[in-house]
Amino acid sequence: MTRFFLKFLVISLLTLQPFSSFAKDKIMIIGDSLSAGYGLEQAQAWVNLLQNKYVAEQKPIEIINTAISGQTTDNALLKIDGWLAAHQPSHVLIELGGNDGIRGFPIKLLQKHLTELVTKSQRFGAHVALMEIQIPPNLGPRYTKMFTDSYSKVANSTEAYLMPYFMVPIAVKPDLMQDDNLHPNAKAQPIIRDFMDEEISTWLKHTK
């Protein structure tokens, strides 16, 4: 009888372990303010909303968010080795470049940094998705096009998965943007969550 109760206790404790401990897919997001939840409570941000959705639906997916407001590609390169070692992700989603573009960083430098971020992640053994960032046309149509085209070029050269930009359907609607007209507001976050839920699902199927 004692052995029966001990066995029952062990099984009960195992079933009560955190959801994250059983996660098959660990997705590390390397991003900027758009994924860091700039101007919002963290509970409102799309990354948190999406993780809550996975938990509610009992999907074995854990999101590790390393996004930092203001982060550029060269900033991320200084940190990525530590992030990979600490978090051991199976997948890496790179949502970066917007701050590089707004500051007019050279296109070749952007491509170099993105390539290094992708290849470092791949050498670690992670599947990589590169989000195709778009920027306002302030620096002229030539720079803007070259900037956006950089993502497909890097994805093609590294065989990374090219993911569409979640801000495309958001940025054109003023009621979904904060007063700075650069960052999505709280109302936009569930929309981004649903967009990313679908895109990540497609990506994960692509990596199986």
Kindly summarize this structure in a few lines.
With about 210 residues, the chain is an alpha/beta fold. It has helices at about 1-15, 35, 45-55, 75-85, 100, 105-125, 140-160, 170, 190-205; strands spanning about 25-30, 60-65, 90-95, 125-130, 160-165.
Written overview of the protein:
α4 (73-87) packs parallel to α6 (107-124) and α6 packs parallel to α7 (141-158). The chain has 9 helices and 5 strands. Helices cover 52% and strands 12% of the residues. β4, α7 and β5 (161-163) form a beta-alpha-beta unit. It is of the alpha/beta class and 208 residues long. It has a 5-stranded parallel β-sheet, sandwiched between helices.
Keywords:
alpha/beta, five-stranded parallel beta sheet, 9 helices, single chain
What does the secondary structure layout of this molecule look like, with pairings?
Layout lengths: L1 H14 L9 E7 L1 H4 L9 H11 L4 E5 L7 H15 L3 E5 L2 H5 L4 H18 L2 E5 L9 H18 L2 E3 L4 H4 L17 H19 L1
Parallel strand pairs: 1-2, 1-3, 3-4, 4-5
